[in-house]
């Protein structure tokens, strides 16, 4: 009997875990589920030490832990990105890695739209003001209708975001490492990244973090933006130079930003540059965190099993 260890709850209730365990037992799997999330290497190694298959989400998993798991044959990652996994070690030791691609497509796309609306309409700021007795005070927001939105990365999430934006009446342009027919069929033009930064009223990032995309959105590219432009990042924190972004916001070279992802997982340091930047809405990496997405994710990771 192969042993599957789910090292964290990944949104599964104890009752659901019991049902899954019974279903997997019929397939000759032992299923061990931990109801708490522990990220330290010692605890992870202890939980994973005799596992054949490990289910994990976005907890950093390096060679120091993997080397203590001699039976490990598969990582079933309940997440889309894999930059937190030591993939080189896995490849060298024959450990199959599968992700939960697609589970958060709708959730992340909707959050990207929500951040655009918040930055344009100052929803968070006005909520706080209203609670303190404030009024509109001549505030005027902006609409998505008619804006040019640049999609950086036309994978599944980028495409879904583009579809939603078209429903708002936006003109959408795109940049990606490869062009996709379904994007062209939507009437979206691919342009250079420089042109996208120059022309867009809203720039929304949807690329994975790789060596090629680290600080893809650089100080130099940010300098090309209109001063009225806003940037949305629901991809990975290090896709953009965060210090350069904060400087552009503080100096009025950008009008705003909506950020769900950072160089590391929140909590953020109190002196984090984006916390001091004007008109910057920040949320603690929640794009993927919806009830619907978590339910879909469980189904995907179970279907990943051999």
Which descriptors apply to this entry?
Rossmann fold, alpha/beta, single chain, 306 residues
Would you kindly provide a written description of the structure presented here, covering whatever features stand out?
The protein has 306 residues and is of the alpha/beta class. The protein folds into two domains: 2-103 and 290-304, NAD(P)-binding Rossmann-like Domain (Rossmann fold), CATH 3.40.50.720; 105-282, Rossmann fold. Helix content is 35%, strand content 16%. The chain has helices spanning 14-25, 41-48, 63-66, 87-92, 105-121, 123-131, 156-167, 181-185, 193-199, 219-222, 242-250, 291-304; strands at residues 2-6, 29-33, 53-56, 74-77, 96-98, 148-152, 171-175, 189-190, 202-205, 230-233, 256-259, 280-282. The strands form two sheets. A seven-stranded parallel β-sheet has the order 8-7-6-9-10-11-12, with helices on both faces. Strand 10 (230-233), helix 11 (242-250) and strand 11 form a beta-alpha-beta unit. The radius of gyration is 21 Å and the shape is elongated. The two termini are 13 Å apart.
């Amino acid at each position: 009997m192969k042993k599957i260890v789910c090292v964290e709850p990944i949104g599964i209730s104890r009752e659901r875990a019991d049902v899954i365990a019974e279903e997997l037992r019929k397939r000759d799997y032992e299923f061990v589920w931990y109801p708490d999330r522990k990220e330290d290497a010692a605890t992870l190694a202890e939980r994973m030490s005799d596992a054949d298959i490990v289910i994990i989400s976005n907890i950093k998993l390096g060679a120091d832990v993997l080397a203590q798991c001699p039976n490990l044959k598969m990582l079933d990652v309940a997440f889309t990105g894999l930059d937190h996994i030591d993939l080189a070690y896995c490849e060298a030791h024959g450990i199959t890695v599968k992700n939960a691609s697609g589970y958060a497509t709708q959730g992340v796309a909707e959050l990207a739209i929500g951040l655009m609306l918040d930055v344009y309409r100052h929803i968070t700021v006005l909520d706080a003001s209203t609670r303190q007795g404030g009024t509109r005070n001549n505030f005027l927001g902006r609409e998505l209708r008619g804006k040019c939105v640049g999609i950086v990365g036309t994978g599944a999430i980028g495409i879904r975001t583009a579809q939603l934006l078209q429903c708002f009446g936006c003109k959408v342009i795109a940049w990606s490492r490869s062009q996709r027919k379904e994007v062209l069929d939507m009437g979206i033009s691919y342009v250079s990244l420089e042109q996208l930064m120059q022309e867009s009223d809203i720039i929304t990032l949807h690329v994975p973090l790789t060596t090629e995309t680290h600080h893809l959105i650089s100080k130099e590219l940010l300098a090309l933006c209109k001063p009225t432009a806003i940037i949305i990042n629901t991809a990975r924190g290090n896709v953009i130079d965060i210090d350069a972004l904060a400087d552009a916001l503080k100096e009025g070279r950008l009008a705003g930003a909506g950020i769900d992802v950072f160089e590391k997982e929140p909590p953020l340091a109190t002196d984090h540059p984006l916390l001091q930047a004007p008109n910057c809405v920040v949320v603690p990496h929640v794009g993927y965190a919806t009830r619907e997405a978590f339910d879909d994710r469980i189904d995907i990771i179970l279907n990943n099993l051999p």
